Amino acid sequence: MDAIYIPQLMKAPERTEEIQVKEFLPGLETLTPVRGRIQVQHCGNYLQVSGQAETIITCNCNRCLQNYNHRLVVDISEIIWLDEAVDQEQAFVSEREIAVEDLVETLSPYGYFDPGEWLYEQMCLAIPQRQLCDQNCPGIQPLSDSSNFEQGLDRRWSCLEALRKQLP
Questions:
Q1: d(CA 104, CA 76)
Q2: Which of 43, 115, 138, 143 is deepest in the core (most CB within 10 A)?
Q3: Residue 73 to residues 38, 54, 133, Cα–Cα distance (Å)
Q4: Which parts of the chain have pLDDT scores under 50?
Q5: At a CB cut-off of 8 Å and minimum separation 6, what does 70 contact?
Q6: Residue 142: partners with Cβ closer than 8 Å, 6 or more residues away
Q7: Contact present, 113 and 6 (Cβ < 8 Å)
């Protein structure tokens, strides 16, 4: 996906550009291409960005550690403010205080909007934090038979096991 030059968006019909998505996003490991659409509308001092997309990812169950496929779906709408002061910001400072009202996305009105990066971020935020293959997943089952347990011992512990058997 190509970045959108924000001043050019002002000249588009209805100040809107719609992008059909059917591709793999760099940095996001998926089994299928991400499919959907993104709509970017210039509204004067902000961009109204909305998108719907879906793909299939492979997750690792937090209980049983088995892999399973998960359908990842996003349906999101976001406002990105346009601010000329974005270009004038100082270099990144490791520590600085940020006011609550500054916790918004801002872009330069003379810069670019990257729909691929925006969609990547939205897809990453939609990945479930708690990954379970099934709500009733029992997890890893311990071996119940002690003879199976002894057979599964690492041979490097055999000397210590022999010593344990000699103790009363």
A1: 16
A2: 115
A3: 13, 4, 17
A4: none
A5: 56, 57, 58, 59, 128, 131
A6: none
A7: yes
